[in-house]
Model the fold of this input.
Amino acid sequence: MNDADEGVTRWRRVADRIRASIADGSVSNQLPPETELAERYAVNRHTVRRAIQSLAAEGLLRSERGRGTFVNASAPRLAYPVGLRTRFSENVTAQGQRPAGRLIRSETVRADQALAALLNCPLGAALARLDTLSVASGLPLSVSTGYFPADRFPNIVRDYAETGSITEALRRHGLPDYRRLETRITAERVHPVDAEHLDLPPDSIVLVSSAVDVDAEDRPVQAMRSRFPADRMELVFRL
Done:
């Protein structure tokens, strides 16, 4: 590959050629190894890897740890609505998938300045921290870290472990419903620990949702930071 197309970076040109190969049927299932693609397009493996990441972000490709990179045209991203009532189980079930949740770890922590502001609690207040994994029909879709006032929800860890649902765990504490106060979205490279849980390559991109939920009296219920694989999820905001 030469530099004739000035203004177009090498990885974008590689991505365009891979996309064209998929469109014309030259590649219909699994991509060749990165080393072979690098030789074919006369670029280094880093350039190939970045091209593959961009196509994965579009939902065209998916990477499977230890197996390789596959064409994903028949499996579009899951549309995940974000609104006043954002519920993982309801969102997934509505799209014909089977939701499930698993507790990764839990601990009691003290509210730092940021968490105290988000949860409107005293600095140093006891919080229950839950790290959870959410899946749909066996496919990992998010890893979340949630903080809950420990005095208000003393059994949140046990109840989540038993039900696999934050909504059900809160209901057991007498909270029948809650709503989203705010959601902030960013993107970042996946953390190695999250990559293991989400079955992602170490250089994958994740969407990060930082949210606060409140009850009917506007008292904060939880502060949560969720990480979604960018090639599997599409966040849809509904007003």
Observations:
- Confidence is low (pLDDT under 50) at residues 1-7.
